[in-house]
Amino acid sequence: MKYYLGVDGGQSSTLGLIADDSGRVIGRGRGGPCNHVTGPEARTRFRAVLTAVLTEACAQAGLDRSGIVFHAACLGFSGGAGDKEAFTRELLTADRYKITHDAEVAMIGATGGKPGIIIISGTGSISFGRNAKGRTARAGGWGYVFGDEGSAFDLTRQALRAALRLEEGWGRETVLRGLLLRETGAPSINALLHRFYTPEYPRDRIASLAGIVSEAADEGDPVAEHLLFDAATQLVNCVEGVHRQLFEPTQTVAIAYIGGVFKSRPLLSEFLKSVRYRLGCQAGEPKYGPAAGALIEAMRLNGLVTLPGSLPAEEK
Q: Are residues 108 and 213 both part of a single domain?
């Protein structure tokens, strides 16, 4: 029997799946984040998390963790693969490896291994695609300073800027100011701005405030409505950029969206409508999750075109 490994290593958690050569998922392991290896502490945490995930998955599959040689393994990591490949190869043995970034395995899972495009918008944002020839392209994913348009962090940033303009006397009236103060307990937007520059508010905590923009839009706030419309437009821009790099102008391809930002009904509605209008494509939810995408890619390394079976509920 040949065994395949797929791993999605993200900023919040890591999920590993083991399948046999029929595509049946026989082992699953979950752990914490393993997206950083810079510095001794980060490397120690990376090794500990990946080891724990592999140990749990192998135990569930009835395999010897210390002796297993996977026929192929694909691992997708948040933050890229280059600085993690050497450490990964120390922790597991496989005949064939593919160590890549999380957006690629997310796209493969979302389309069931077929050509297409994924747009991811959570704390940050990125679009990634692959065509039938195996060529890939991306748009976005450049981080919160120079990119991440349409992300949760960006929505909070834009809401704060709108509230700052209001406090300074030259911005439009908006309920965003009151909502930001309510959620954070800050005495003023100026005080909140300074808190955002401190360790008290890491990037993911700032991003977690993005839901107030949808709340304000539901109250009919025109400033919030504009921010959601603009975020949806930026996300479609990224998708269109990837489509232009990989596909013919009128070519219909599978497009999937994932991430907390799409929980906003006004933003999602505008995104779907704009994708149809600008690209002539239908966008939908992913077919499978990123770990399943990594598993599909691991099997593809051996020439198998097989969709995983017996997947955990959250991976369907």
A: no
